[in-house]
Amino acid sequence: MQIFLQTERLILRRFTGADVDNLFDLDSDPEVMRFINGGIPTSRDEIEHDSLPAFLHYYERGDRYGFWAAIEKSSGEFLGWFHFRPGEGSGPNEPELGYRLRKSAWGKGYATEGSKALVHKGFTELGAERIVASAYEANTASRRVMEKVGMTLVRTYPVGQSDPLLVGPERFNSNGVDYALEKDDWERQG
Ligand SMILES: CC(C)(COP(=O)(O)OP(=O)(O)OC[C@H]1O[C@@H](n2cnc3c(N)ncnc32)[C@H](O)[C@@H]1OP(=O)(O)O)[C@@H](O)C(=O)NCCC(=O)NCCS
What we know:
- Helices cover 36% and strands 27% of the residues.
- Helix 1 packs across helix 3 and helix 4 (110-124) crosses helix 5.
- The protein has a single domain, classed as Aminopeptidase, CATH 3.40.630.
- It has helices at residues 20-27, 30-37, 44-60, 110-124, 140-149, 164-167, 183-189; strands spanning 3-6, 10-14, 66-72, 78-86, 95-101, 130-136, 152-157, 176-182.
- It is globular, with a radius of gyration of 16 Å.
- The protein has a five-stranded antiparallel β-sheet, sandwiched between helices.
- It is of the alpha+beta class.
- The structure holds coenzyme A (COA).
- Coenzyme A (COA) binds at residues 32, 35, 99-101, 105-112, 135, 139-142, 144-145.
- The site of coenzyme A has 20 residues, from helix 2, strand 5, helix 4 and helix 5.
């Protein structure tokens, strides 16, 4: 197991080709997918031939950033994942933080614990200067994690007509929100 980092209760390890079922189970819960694409499960084919190879590609090319599987230390169970990598159009020192956990793991502070550790590693070891994150405005849990990590709201913007939430099973409208944390501010927060 190639461990990227550990916290008190979590191990963040590299994904392997054997994680197809873990990812498939995670994305099969419409509640997990609610604020991703309106609640639509990801197909096994897409995971096997698209998402997982994309995750593995980060390690293959030796990138310092990427996607990591979150494992609960006490049970050894796969809880979900964190990503920490520059988003499209962002500079190399501006990673985007994200997370997706199984419903059974929600409300235990795991997303905050993993995110705080990634933010610390990003600013102290990986050369990050600014960390960003995005969510739908209605995704209170995700926004709360961003706030607990020390991020602040940068902008709120309307989503486009073809946004997944508008065409997904629930069909509800929600603005997008962007958060950010500058290295200087993080250092000041102590
Ligand atoms: C977002 C997610 C990763 C949060 O994981 P988590 O481990 O439950 O997060 P934490 O326990 O660290 O913190 C969640 C916070 O949100 C709060 N919260 C959760 N649901 C809430 C709600 N409906 N209304 C208000 N607050 C809520 C919790 O009380 C907690 O805040 P607190 O510590 O101040 O009480 C998890 O909900 C998830 O995987 N959701 C599905 C995927 C997803 O939406 N990912 C983010 C895409 S932007």
